[in-house]
Specification:
Layout lengths: L5 H21 L4 E2 L5 E2 L1 H17 L5 E3 L4 H6 L5 E9 L1 H6 L5 E8 L2 E9 L4 E6 L3 E6 L2 E4 L11 E6 L5 H7 L5 E6 L3 H7 L5 E4 L5 H13 L3 E4 L17 E4 L3
Parallel strand pairs: 3-4, 10-11
Antiparallel strand pairs: 1-2, 4-5, 5-6, 6-7, 7-8, 8-9, 12-14, 13-14
């Protein structure tokens, strides 16, 4: 069983971030996939950097990326252990140039995300960890352990939500909570804000794919939080459909 070392994985996400930022600074064109989601050269360059590095680091572990071809997508159901990658999570945020996009790498074992790393190139902030290891944040070269702060009764709920995908179902879900402090944010940063204690709840009642959530779920669980489907069961991976069900990420253990 492979145990990730931050010293091995951090250079990979930073290299992907550098490839993304080179394109971010100098302009780019936007294409659209069959599902109308945007695609840029930055997505493809980061994919290449990450996949080549992971294949060299762990030759026996397969890699599934959002930009992988249909042959890899078809093969994934045979895997018990693999890397799950979103080379540029938040392409809409990349296109709008608000800086709220990330590089995500997760290690999946038997359908669970056991370790993940999230890197925000514009912010130059990095989060990593897993349920069995704890969670950390690296800023300005300084590493510190992070932990969730659950909701205190009698105070407003600190809720983080999507900048690009706020659904009517999410609005309806929030009504019974009463007093809310709302924070809009793109990409997997929403999980990380909860993991470092700056928010308590992220309800996602809108579509996501497995690569959108895996790395940040591991970080949040490492910080003491949880990510569950609406029925309370854990959000899992390598499902028959790459789409996730609706879920709730929270600071509650």
């Amino acid at each position: 069983m492979y145990h990730p070392d931050i010293a091995d994985i951090e250079p990979i996400v930073r290299a992907a971030g550098e490839a993304i930022m080179a394109i971010y600074r100098h302009g780019f064109t936007v294409e659209y996939k069959s599902d109308d989601s945007p695609l840029t050269k930055a997505d493809q360059c980061a994919h290449k950097v990450i996949v080549q590095a992971l294949e060299k680091l762990t030759p026996t572990l397969p890699v599934l990326s959002e930009e992988s071809g249909p042959d890899v997508m078809a093969a994934r159901h045979q895997w018990s252990h693999y890397w799950l990658v979103d080379p540029l999570d938040g392409t809409k945020e990349f296109v709008s140039r608000n800086g709220e996009f990330t590089v995500n790498i997760a290690l999946i074992e038997h359908g669970r995300s056991v370790w993940g790393i999230v890197y925000a190139p514009v912010l130059d902030k990095l989060w990593y960890g897993g349920k069995a290891q704890g969670a950390w944040r690296i800023v300005d070269g300084q590493r510190e352990m992070i932990q969730v702060r659950p909701h205190l009764p009698g105070t407003a709920w600190r809720v983080v939500g999507s900048r690009s995908h706020l659904s009517s179902e999410t609005r309806d879900f929030l009504v019974p909570l009463g007093d809310i402090e709302w924070l809009s944010m793109g990409s997997s940063l929403k999980f990380c804000v909860i993991a470092e204690g700056e928010a308590e709840l992220y309800p996602r009642l809108a579509p996501t794919c497995e690569w959108d959530t895996a790395a940040a779920q591991a970080v949040l669980e490492g910080a003491g939080g949880r990510v569950t489907q609406l029925d309370g069961t854990p959000l899992t991976y390598n499902k028959p459909d790459i789409l996730n069900p609706w879920f709730i990420a929270s600071a509650e253990s």
